[in-house]
Amino acid sequence: MSRDNPCRWSRRELLQALSAGSGLLLLHCGSQPPGERQAQRGAYDWNKHFWGYAVDTTRCIGCCACMRACRRENDVPLTYYRTWVERYRILKDDRVAVDVATNDEHIFSPVSGDVKKAFFVPKLCNHCSKSVCNQVCPVGASYYTRDGVVLVDTKWCIGCGYCVQACPYGTRYIRPADHVADKCTLCYHRITRGLLPACVEVCPTKARIFGDLKDPKDHLVTLLKQRRYRVLRPEMGTRPKCYYLGLEREVI
Amino acid sequence: MNFVFPNEPHVVWSVMIVLYPFMSGLVSGAFIVAAMYYVFRQEAFKPIARFALASTLVFLVFAPLPLLVHLGNPARGGNIMITPNFTSAKAGFGFIFSGFMLLVSMMAWFVFRKDLLERARGKGPLALISRLILLLDTRESEATRRADDRVLRILGGIGIPLAILLHGYVGFMFGSLKANPWWSTPLMFVIFVFSALVSGFAVITFHYFLVSWINRWKVDSGCVQALSRYLWGFMIVAVGLELLELMSIAYQQTAEWEVLRRLIEERLWISYVVLQFGLLALVPFLLLLTNTLLELPRRISRLLVWLAAAMLLLQVLVMRWNVVIGGQLLSKSFRGFTSYMPGLWEKEGLFVGVIIFTLPFLILYGFHKFVHLFPDDHQARPRDREA
Q1: Is residue A36 scored above 50 in pLDDT?
Q2: pLDDT tens track for B316-345
Q3: What domains are defined for chain A?
Q4: Distance between the two ends of chain B, CA-based, in angstroms?
Q5: What are the tens digits of pLDDT across the range B7-29?
Q6: I need a surface site. Which of A243, B44, B141, B330 has the fewest CB within 10 A?
Q7: Which residues in chain B show pLDDT less than 50?
Q8: What is the pLDDT of residue A1?
Q9: How many whole angstroms separate alpha carbon B279 and alpha carbon B259?
Q10: What does the pLDDT average to over A58-80?
Q11: Which phi and psi angles does A242 have, rounded to 5°?
């Protein structure tokens, strides 16, 4: 303590005490990243699988059973969507009309007009290998599992909405009940028990195909070997793992 | 033919996210005004240097508030510091903000040390608080004052790139989102930096006039002219860059321009074309041009600068609106637009926005009661004596 200073503590001593306190606080803050917290589910080993998804657009009939099943299975709030079916109508003057059955029953309204060509395209989270949503999540609540699924740790998400803005496919939303990011999980609670995602289970025409890309005998792997496919918005560089068979060029 | 993805009618970023870059821009801009004196030693800025630094501090304290109000789970806001995901542009916010807060607090400590010493010598709770802020060290001499000045200059020098980073990075947060063609441009970083400078100079100019008018103080002419010239220069660069970005996309006639053109024509005509580039950019430009080129009577000149500052402040606010809201109106399907109308009383509504924006000014008023925000001779110069 300086003799000139009437106070008991010198500035140096006070700053040293404050620095020690801050150091202890920082030690306390050191914590495991949230992404790796996904618990193993029983006998399921996530190292043995790498899940993929395909949509055969030539098979989809727009019944929207998948949308209803997803809503029931995952308790998706009304006016929000983990998956949806887009109806494309190419008109005779080459204009493109697109709509989604957003009514409560998810039934497309009948349309008339000079339609040259029409088809349906189911959409969902693309579970991209280089997902932008994971890249931008400031707290690491959005993460990529070892079996290839993009999930959200809803107990860690701060609800900033950055991932919603970053997803080029519009598949994310902020769940109104608990204000966290939500999206398709490929029904992770089902696939880790050997079941199919609800939307795949109910599809009457097998337009939605789910499989294990690590298994060379899997139907999805065979299909991707035999058929030509595309991914949505490849220019985004996100490497989507949702493959579209028979996709028209009008689809974005 | 309007089509948006079914989750897009829910606009996620609203008034609070418009306010957040606006307030963070005021922080950076006001800091540069203070640095004009403390770092570059421009004497013209001396009358408002303390005021600008205090403004930086109070805006900085309140800048994260809109972000916090916006968060779905504000109680988890600290996660951004506990488990930062460094691939995220947003993860750096906590660190850049904390670093800048520390630096500005230290600068304020050195600038207002003299005032605090005076208070500390007295008795009562204010004297005790002052002694605590002074870290219990109340010594003062010519040597300490010289040391304070030197440290202040060094801190200011470090603060300039930090201030640019603080706001430029907010622009980068938008500019790096490749999914949205309205946001995705490397120019966004630079545009945000210059618009921050405009808003900072504008708010200090506007507020300085207002405070002087209320207290019947004489406005320092040299200071006003310096402020108006910098304001004019920065607004030319900021608006020039905004126009350059638009013209470059328009001239390239890419597929994205088709939808962006529709966005401007159908959804943003009033806020973008009429307000951001028309009324609130062209008119202040002409006012500041007139003030710079012509020898106007002092009263008219001050009125022009005051009006221009107010309009440019609004221009930057409107620009933030057009960036944040405009980008979300555009569907990622590129086939249509959603709509958004801010609520008045909701959590992220206009009322809360006005309250949050007003709070720094109220705190600054309290600050003024505690320390001298303007030089002593300045405060003692009533306007009446001018005549």
Answers
A1: no
A2: 999 999 999 999 999 999 999 999 999 999
A3: 46-245 (3.30.70.20)
A4: 67
A5: 999 999 999 999 999 999 999 99
A6: B141
A7: 384-387
A8: 40
A9: 25
A10: 97
A11: -110, 110
For chain A, first and last CA: distance in Å? Answer: 71
pLDDT at A31 > cutoff 50: no
Q: Which two tokens stand for residue A139?
A: 């707290």
Residue from B216, B241, B387 nearest B323 by CA: B241
Of the candidates A99, A158, A164, the beta carbon closest to that of B71 is on A158
Map out the domains of chain B with their CATH numbers.
Answer: 15-386 (1.20.1630.10)
Place of tokens 């903000």: B97
Q: Quote the minimal CA–CA distance from B92 to chain A in Å.
A: 8
Chain B residues lying within 8 Å of A31, measured CB to CB: 82-83
User: How far is the alpha carbon of A243 from chain B, nearest alpha carbon, in Å?
Assistant: 18
pLDDT at res. A133 = 97
d(Cα B387, Cα B378) in Å, to the nearest integer? 16
Contact (CB<8Å) B73/A137: no
**Chain B residues touching A166 at Cβ < 8 A:** 177, 179
- Please answer yes or no on whether A137 and B179 come within 8 Å at the CB atom: no
Of A5, A132, A140, the CB nearest to B85: A140
Q: Is the dihedral of CA A153, A156, A159, A162 positive or negative?
A: negative
A with B: how many residue pairs have Cβ under 8 Å apart? 164
A170 pLDDT band, cuts 50/70/90, is very high
Distance (Å, rounded) from C-alpha B40 to C-alpha B35?
7
Suggest the residue from B1, B2, B3 to mutate for an interface test with chain A (most A CBs closer than 10 A): B3
For the stretch A111-136, pLDDT in tens is 887 999 999 999 999 999 999 999 99
pLDDT score, position A214: 97
Q: Tell me what pLDDT residue A28 has.
A: 46
Instruction: Name the residue among A224, A205, A227 with its Cα closest to residue A63.
Output: A205
Question: Are B333 and A172 within 8 A, CB to CB?
Answer: no
> What is the model's pLDDT at position B367?
87
What distance in Å separates residue B125's CA from the closest CA in chain A?
16
The minimum CA-CA distance between B336 and chain A, rounded to whole Å, is 10
**Stretch 123-152 of chain A: residues touching chain B, C-beta under 8 Å:** 123, 132, 134-141
ipTM of the complex: 0.91
Note the residue count of chain B.
Answer: 387
Using the Cβ of B141 and the Cβ atoms of chain A, whether some distance falls under 8 Å is answered with no
Please provide the size of chain A in residues: 252
